[in-house]
Every structure is written in structure tokens, then in C-alpha cells.
Amino acid sequence: MCMTEKIIRVGSRGTCKLHYDRYNKEMAYFTFDGLEQTGIVEHFFSTRYGGVSDGHLYSLNFSYSQGDAEENVDENYRRAAAHLGMTSCDIVCSQQTHTTNVRRVTAADKGKGVVTKQDHTDIDGLITNEKGIILATFYADCVPLFIVDPVNQAIGLSHSGWRGTVAKMGKVTLDRMRAEYGTKPEDVRVAIAPSICQGCYEVSEDVALAFEKNFVRDDAKAVEYLMRYRQHYAKKDIDNCLLYQKENGKYQLNLWYANFRVFRDAGVPDQSIEVTDVCTCCNPSLLFSHRASEGKRGNLGAFLMLK
């Protein structure tokens, strides 16, 4: 497997780590220290490595709708579940359409999206407080949001593209967890997993204006973010932390910082938020990226389960 320098550097930082499955030597995946330290969950974010799909879907593809053979995707799910010591019958899949709809999952939902048909639609977030249910959401540049509440033994896993981020999907998920399980933002651990970086994410003016409207500029929060996740920064980095305009009239949007802001503004302590610096678009040999492949790609998977 070929890893970029960026991936190696992140692995040595001690928060978002790249591993190999000790049983399936081909499987490579990411975990977050903060989630592991809660002691109540199993989790991982997949890479392209460790499955049986081929061609542009090589190899750990979790999409049935990108032209893959059904038996390949079934086997990929089997391997993902086995990595967590479970079976495909324990997985519950989202049905993502860039909404902020969150579904409470119970044991009655097990297998939906893999071994049985889904009876839910337009669901970009999943929450549960039941053990042994694998929540699964899917990506090829959008932002995976992992939420663990060790006090109330509850978890949430949400998909947040630009539409979900501008509508503050992280806060919506936390609010739903509070309503269902009593979750308090100050108690949770959060991970913002590999997704597209600001340098790769060009957006139009209407998207930029939506973010400017919903994210009031706060230099203090930008400084805190930059101090935590970058060794060196300049004044221009503070000014451009959320987005900046280019000569062509387009903007570069920072979904990582935006989702950090969503959680911080919702009351999650800075030290409880882990943010990746692994870009899907910068690493197309390791991760599926819609932009890098111009839409010819499979889906990565985020998986989260209460032990």
C-alpha cells in the first residue's frame, strides 16, 4: 500500500490514526484516540483497502448504486462487520440525501440497508443507546461526524456535506440525542473524520453567502482552532479560516473548521473535538473522492457501535 507523506504525518500526531486490521492484512482504516478513550465504543472510518471490489471501485466499496456487483458489496460489509466482531445483520445504514434528518435506531432496525431493505428514507444521521448495533454512514468527500456520550451510553453518527454543515447537522444530532437520551454537549467526545479539505473544496458564491449568513465571523474561535490544529499560522489564516474568495470569483470553503464551530458553538469543549487533516481529494489512491474522480468512485464507510 502506498501512503502519502500527509497520511504518515497524521498517523504520528496521535489523534486520527491509520491502522491495518490484524486479521485482514489488506484492510486499512482510521480511528480516533478520543473516541477509543471513552472505553464504550468500537469505531472506524474505512479506506479503499480491504475489500473485493475492483476497477474504479477498488476495493472496499460500500455502495450498491455505483455499478458494483451486489455480492462484492455484501462481502465488503461482511468484512467491515467482522472487523468489529459482529455480522452484517448488526449493521444499520443511513439513507442519505443531504438532509438534517436524524433517526433513532433500535434492535428492530438491525440489518437494514444490507441484509434487508430499508424502510426509512432521507436519513443523514443515526443515533442509538442500544449495544451491539453498528451505525453506518457513507462518504466520498462529505464530512463524517462521530459523537459519543459516555455518561448516558449513547452514540450518534451523521453525514454532513455543505448543506448539512450550513444547517448545523452536528448540533441537530446533539439536540436529538439530548431529547432521546439526555445527552449534554459538555459530556460528549466528537470526531470530524477524513473528508475534503479547504484547498480542494471550491464552491460558488451562493454557497459562500449561505455560510457567511449562518456562521458569524469570530476571530477568537478561528485562533483557537488554528492554534490547536496548526503549528504556524498568519493573520491571513484567521481571515480565511472559514472561506476565502479567489480571482475567478469562486470560494474555498473549510468544512472542517465549520463543523468544529458547529460543535463548539453547541457547547462541546474544544478538547473534546478531534478534527482530521486527512483530505479525501488529496489522497485518491487511499480514499474515494467524488471531486478527484469526477464522480467515478465508490463509497467509504463510517462505522460506530456501543460495545
- Using only C-alpha atoms, the radius of gyration works out to 18 Å
Give the end-to-end Cα distance, rounded to a whole number of Å. 30 Å
Class by SSE composition: alpha+beta
| Biggest beta-sheet profile | 6 strands, mixed
Strand/helix succession? HEEHEHEEEEEEHHEEHHHEEHEHE
Average pLDDT over all residues: 93
Counting DSSP H or I runs of 4 or more residues, the number of helices is 10
Percent of residues in β-strands: 15-25%
Strand line-up in the sheet with most strands: 1-2-3-15-7-4
Query: Into which percent range does the helicity of residues fall?
Result: 25-40%
User: What is the total tally of β strands?
Assistant: 15
Polypeptide structure, described:
With 307 residues, this protein is an alpha+beta fold. Helices cover 28% and strands 22% of the residues. It is built from 10 helices and 15 strands. The chain has helices spanning 5-13, 33-37, 70-83, 162-166, 169-181, 205-214, 219-229, 235-239, 255-265, 290-293; strands at 16-20, 28-32, 41-46, 91-93, 102-104, 125-128, 134-139, 143-149, 154-160, 189-192, 202-203, 243-245, 251-253, 273-275, 300-306. The strands form 3 sheets. It has a 6-stranded mixed beta sheet. The protein has a 6-stranded mixed beta sheet with strand order 5-6-9-8-10-14. The protein has a 3-stranded antiparallel beta sheet with strand order 11-13-12. β8 and β9 form a beta hairpin. The longest helix has 14 residues, at 70-83. It is globular, with a radius of gyration of 18 Å. The two termini are 30 Å apart. The model is unreliable at 1-14 (pLDDT under 50).
